[in-house]
Design goal:
The protein contains 10 helices and 14 strands. The protein is α/β, with parallel strands linked by helices and 322 residues long. α3 runs parallel beside α4.
Length: 322
């Protein structure tokens, strides 16, 4: 990887990736439409970094911006799972069609290497735990996951048809510095406003796995350094990324409140899921990525508290996300 193109470069994971790549001496072109990305996340100054404001739905501009790169990290997406039913076309446009445009821009520039941020939500309400990469796909339960499945399928087809080298990473929820949406964000936001009570979607027994952002990036880069997709039958490899543990929402609440020294009254909305498409149990089998020599450094509890500490020191993100 000599010159790397990063979509979603001003976002949570993307900006952390840019910093990591620059620190390792890489040349980076960042691309973001700033719909959710933050200017404060892209303050890194380097002669090896070019940040371009643009949208993945503008294929002409995207193709021009990507010129001269040799690898693409496609991280930009609409990740609003909870409110997906309020704007059904957003996942199709920003996840599926945007991924098609990224692939076409790559093809126009003779770029054949792509890493794609997919999601563990593609397994729907799985019946096998921990869930392996070759688990049968169930009925999709969210528009977000459905749009990511479509993106995965297109990448696989481009790898087969055009000789691309594809790496599909199915993430659990990612935590860490620059985190701007999700349960830790929501809970802390509530507790700042009213420390004595906390509203919790569902019954609090939903079980999820999480992963610290720097562990996530190290896994992706570890896999790509081994060029595993070049040896795959269809030149595309799929990897689950997550911790080898999970926690219940109630566990996370206990950690957060204990860290803040609070004991709020909990108000549960009820039911086994927080919203339509919220899978009550997500726990991925990660033996495949661990076989490359990668291990996560932080536990889920450590990642939750690291995230909370960052939010406490960066209250400006709540105003930006309001």
């Amino acid at each position: 990887m000599d010159r790397i193109f990063v979509t979603g470069a001003a976002g949570f994971i993307g900006s952390n990736l840019v910093d990591h790549l620059l620190a390792s001496g890489r040349e980076v072109v960042g691309w973001d439409n700033f719909s959710t990305g933050q200017n404060r996340f892209v303050e890194a100054s380097s002669a090896r970094y070019q940040l371009i404001e643009g949208d993945n739905l503008d294929l002409t501009a995207l193709t021009k911006a990507m010129a001269g790169c040799d690898t693409v990290f496609h991280l930009a997406a609409n990740a609003d799972v909870r409110f997906g039913l309020e704007h059904p076309s957003k996942d199709l446009q920003q996840n599926t069609i945007a991924t098609f445009n990224v692939l076409e821009a790559m093809r126009a520039n003779s770029i054949a290497r792509i890493a794609f941020s997919s999601t563990g939500s593609v397994y729907g309400e799985a019946t096998v735990f921990p869930t392996p990469e070759d688990a049968p796909f169930p009925v999709q339960t969210s528009l977000y996951a459905a749009s990511k499945v479509a993106g995965e399928a297109m990448i696989q087809a481009y790898c087969e048809g055009f000789g691309f080298e594809g790496y599909i990473f199915r993430f659990v929820s990612i935590l860490g510095e620059r985190y701007t949406h999700g349960h830790v964000f929501d809970f802390y936001n509530q507790l700042m406003d009213h420390p004595n009570r906390l509203k919790v979607l569902g019954d609090g027994r939903q079980r999820k796995s999480y992963l610290y952002v720097k562990d996530c990036l190290n896994a992706m880069l570890r896999v790509m350094s081994l060029e595993t997709a070049t040896k795959a039958k269809h030149r595309c490899e799929v990897y689950n990324l997550g911790a080898d543990e999970f926690c219940a929402v109630r566990d996370s609440i206990s950690w957060i409140c204990g860290h803040l020294g609070l004991d709020p009254e909990l108000e549960f909305t009820g039911g086994e899921r927080g919203w339509v498409g919220d899978n009550p149990f997500i726990f991925l089998e990660t033996g495949k990525v661990r076989a490359t020599g990668w291990q996560n450094e932080l536990t889920i509890r450590e990642a939750v508290l690291r995230t909370l500490d960052w939010l406490r020191g960066n209250s400006w993100v709540f105003e930006k996300r309001a």
